[in-house]
Design a protein that fits this description.
The chain is an alpha+beta fold. The protein contains twelve helices and 17 strands. It has three domains: about 5-70 and about 165-265, no CATH class; about 75-150, no CATH class; about 350-385, no CATH class. A hairpin with a 3-residue loop joins strand 7 (about 75) and strand 8 (about 80). The mean pLDDT is about 90. The chain binds zinc ion.
Length: about 375
Amino acid sequence: MTERQELWLLLGILYLAECFRWVRRGSWVFRRLYGSRWSAQPASEFIGNDRGDLHWAWPFPLFGDLIVARGLPWCVGPEGVATWHPVTRHPNGRTLQAAGFRRWEEVREVQLEGEKIFVANELWWVADSQVEAQRLASALKRWAELPAKQREAALRIELRDSFDVAAVRARIATTTPELGLTRQIASGLWCVLFFLLPLAIWRQGWFPALPLGLIAVYGLGGWIAWRTVRLHQTWYPRATAERLRVRLLCWCSPLTAIRAADLVGRNRVESFDPLAVALALLPGPRTAAVAGSWVRDSWFPRLPENPFPHGTPAANTVTWFTSLYQEIGTEALKTAGIDAEALRRPPAATEACHTQYCARCQAQYLAIASSCQACNGRPLYPLVPVK
Ligand SMILES: [Zn+2]
């Protein structure tokens, strides 16, 4: 292999690395190929650990779209806020973090350090992006400053807004065309960098192909950086630190500039609950599967259901939020024509020897089994017998 081929092989490998995104557990990634339907990815198909998963995006920028939805990652209630959520959302469990609790009186000092949120000088949460960290830190401050009597109503409104399926559709409908031109310029840059420039160097030598190629590469990269920063300013006006990073990365690295649409676009529905995004974007059969998974995960979560001692403010907060979360999610399903109660009914046994099942993962068991180990020891329920 010549030095020139080795150089472009290295560029290709670096570019492929730009096509992957690390997403913390609890978020769902939604991906689609241009012109096709969306699909939901609660977990990576390839690499992940106890904290998160590595998700991929389509390498040619014009071909695909990728968004991340998290919604509210904590339990909030009239008494305080807990780093716990009623649903696991990830097939292998919650992200590796000890459950913490703070009363609202203690949530006075909220600081941001990149993606990290500190409450009362202690690390509270690590977000996926500075956009998400900014949103969550602002919400914490806002709720903590509210008078106690108004807080409960505000929390209900906030959670209801995160299940607004029509708002998700509207957000995607308005933002996707705005990203279109950025994707087209990025596709042009991709063609110049990986096709036209190597071809010109091969035919004419390093000079004059390289100077002209670099002018084209950095010209297109600058155009992408300008558009990306403008969109970032419009969509996430408070995330100034991240905007500076996006600006520098897109200006300095043509490889990052090619992925700019994903960089700025992936957070555009992150404030919505993954169920709401699924109801808004997925086609019928996929929606039914996601709804079934959400219902089972909400009513029969992976144990423990509540990590705090019974009767404490922390435990009360988890109980209060879980009930509200189930109520609002069920309303969203009902509006979409899905009966949540029907999804909770026991299935029929697939074999005559199966008499019990796990209501969360739907695994069926013999009479000798006492619990589902895959769901951390969830108790089993009787199956509908085979007729
Ligand atoms: Zn199970």
